[in-house]
């Protein structure tokens, strides 16, 4: 009986401690997010190892720091900014369809109450939409979610064709259900395992900046490793072996990061997503469009502006292009289009 009581007390204490830990860290309470938490810890440790070995073995770097402190200060600032951007992107929302639907429906309910009050006072309310950029800012609409989304599809489209069977919501164009997050994402790009979240309309810009910072940090670190090996290749062999092994793995990571950075830069310039590019033939509204035509592109300059500066609301969606717009985009580019950045 004493052993049984001791085991019960230990189990109860462990249960209380685990509950307390889950309250302090919600990531641990979700089984789907625990692997991403482990990857985050591993990624931070890799950064600390690569930078720590430089200062541990590289006496030349320490002496250079004393002579030129600004050089090391900028490098460490980039190192800290990359980690901050990583966690900032990881904790950001990609823009979920369910949240957009709730925002639109709440706005619709409030506008109906306001219109009823204004009609009693003899005044009239006119809804305003932002259509200059080719997008619909959902926070400013006074219509219901179902009508708003179905107006973006061709006439005669069925609600069942665009309804998600998992979330029970009507998906606007360019959205997709993520089985890892178990939610539909606006302008779904991909689910990033290293970040533990989806990349969508709400955080694609932050993801691009994180890749840019990570690529720059990786190039700079490779240069520091090569500089160390050139100056200390005849010293302790085991230090050289460790540095060469780390440099080899870092070079592989650099190749991957460069390709990823160039790929997402191409997506930004053409206003595409990874999902649309890879699964283009499986998406119903993109199936009949030629591959050289980018249906959602509004020109390089406008695409860059919308990507970097015009994301005032994560609940903005784009309607499908009209046949006239697709015909205009399928025409060959002229010199005037190139000069005015209207290509793509």
TrEMBL record:
Catalysed reactions listed for this entry: L-cysteinyl-[protein] + hexadecanoyl-CoA = S-hexadecanoyl-L-cysteinyl-[protein] + CoA
GO molecular function: protein-cysteine S-palmitoyltransferase activity
Enzyme Commission identifier(s): 2.3.1.225
Keywords: Acyltransferase, Lipoprotein, Membrane, Palmitate, Transferase, Transmembrane, Transmembrane helix
PROSITE patterns reported in the protein's UniProt record: DHHC
Start and end residues of each Palmitoyltransferase DHHC domain: 163-279
Pfam families associated with the record: DHHC
Annotated compartments: Endomembrane system
Membrane topology: Multi-pass membrane protein
InterPro entries: Palmitoyltrfase_DHHC (IPR001594), PFA4/ZDH16/20/ERF2-like (IPR039859)
GO cellular component: endomembrane system
Transmembrane segments: 37-58, 70-88, 207-229, 241-263
Tagged with keyword Disulfide bond: no
Signal sequence, start to end: none
Recorded family membership: Belongs to the DHHC palmitoyltransferase family.
Record remark: domains: The DHHC domain is required for palmitoyltransferase activity.
Protein name: S-acyltransferase
Gene: LOC104603708
């Amino acid at each position: 009986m004493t052993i049984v009581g001791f085991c019960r007390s230990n189990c109860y204490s462990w249960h209380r401690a685990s509950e307390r830990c889950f309250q302090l860290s919600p990531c641990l309470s979700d089984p789907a997010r625990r692997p991403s938490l482990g990857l985050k810890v591993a990624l931070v440790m890799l950064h600390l190892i690569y930078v720590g070995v430089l200062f541990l073995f590289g006496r030349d770097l320490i002496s250079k720091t004393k002579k030129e402190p600004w050089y090391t200060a900028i490098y460490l600032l980039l190192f800290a900014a990359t980690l901050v951007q990583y966690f900032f992107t990881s904790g950001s929302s990609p823009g979920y369809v369910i949240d957009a639907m709730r925002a639109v429906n709440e706005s619709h309910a409030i506008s109906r109450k306001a219109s009823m009050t204004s009609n009693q006072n003899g005044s009239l309310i006119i809804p305003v939409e932002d259509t200059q950029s080719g997008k619909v800012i959902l926070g400013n609409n006074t219509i219901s979610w179902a009508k708003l989304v179905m107006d973006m599809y061709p006439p005669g489209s069925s609600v069942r064709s665009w309804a998600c069977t998992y979330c029970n919501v009507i998906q606007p164009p360019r959205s997709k259900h993520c089985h890892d997050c178990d939610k539909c994402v606006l302008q779904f790009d991909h689910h990033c395992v290293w970040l533990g979240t989806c990349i969508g309309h709400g955080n694609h810009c932050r993801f691009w900046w994180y890749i840019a910072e990570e690529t720059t940090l990786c190039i700079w670190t490779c240069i520091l490793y090569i500089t160390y090996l050139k100056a200390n290749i005849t010293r302790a062999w085991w230090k050289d072996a460790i540095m060469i092994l780390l440099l080899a793995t870092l070079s592989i990571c650099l190749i991957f990061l460069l390709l990823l950075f160039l790929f997402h830069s191409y997506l930004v310039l053409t206003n595409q997503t990874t999902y649309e590019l890879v699964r283009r033939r499986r998406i119903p509204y993109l199936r009949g469009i030629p591959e050289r035509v980018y249906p959602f592109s509004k020109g390089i300059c406008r695409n860059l502006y919308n990507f970097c500066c015009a994301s005032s609301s994560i609940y903005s969606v784009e309607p499908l292009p009209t046949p006239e717009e697709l015909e205009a985009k399928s025409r060959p580019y002229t010199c005037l289009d190139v000069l005015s950045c209207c290509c793509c």
